[in-house]
Amino acid sequence: METENSTMVTEFILLGLTQSHTAQLLVFVLVLIFYLIILPGNFLIILTIRSDPGLSAPLYFFLGNLAFLDSSYSFIVAPRMLVDFFSEKKVISYRCCITQLFFLHFLGVGEMFLLVVMAFDRYIAICRPLHYSTVMKPRVCYALLLALWIGGFAHSIVQVALILNLPFCGPNQLDNFFCDVPQVIKLACTDTFVVELLMVSNSGLLTLLCFLGLLISYMVILCHVKGHSSERKNKAISTCTTHIIIVFLMFGPAIFIYTRPFQAFPADKVVSLFHTVIFPLMNPVIYTLRNREVKASMKKLINQHIVL
Q1: Predicted pLDDT of residue 4
Q2: Which residues, in sequence order, are CB contacts of 172 under 8 Å at separation 6+?
Q3: Which residues cross the membrane (predicted)?
């Protein structure tokens, strides 16, 4: 079958998170409350870091970018999901589906790489403090940021290219509340074994390697501070603990989704909801709640501009 004439499907029908109206209403209310509370919090983090000259260290530069990435990531799935709760027929066009898939992987992998960069920053700060100002110069920070954006773009282009080469000529029901690689591939009118293998190698292996690399790096840092003073050791442990929590919260669901054959599991939708909606909003907040400098600066900003 010729690729150029094989894409007969022009839209996909999303089956949604659940078919129960009561469960849909409950999820809608919870997600809406969570979204309206936490999303402004992420923008507040960005504003705080940009407005306070005392938060000019590379750690806060990367934290601000993390909040931006997570806020952008949360716009890909959550708003449409909330609107779809009121739609009897949840339809998404083929082009919109591919666009959603592209940005999902573009920003997701960009965030993974950003966490790797943040781990590198903490390693230099804790294990090589005398070299920190030399290594983590502003020029280097911007170069690392550019590299992670390019890496995310390259990864996402590969995902989309593999999808675009598949023929879709029959079933068009996606058993999910958004478009993602595992569900879309299953609707192709051809044998997708090779494509699935490439996808697992691309997304799954990349996710697993980043996860293991991050855990090893933080274990190295924790081993390095064993002989340090109590104050410095406690600060390093607190920082590493925060980063490790984020690593498990982000990479756990991603590993579950992308490092196995593309077959349906009962927990898939719940894991996807956490991965695409809940976690992106929580991520920077967890960092902020465990960072005294950011919390103090945020309170100062609120007192200056909001409290009368």
Answers
A1: 44
A2: 9, 11, 12, 13, 187
A3: 25-47, 59-78, 98-120, 140-164, 205-225, 237-258, 270-289
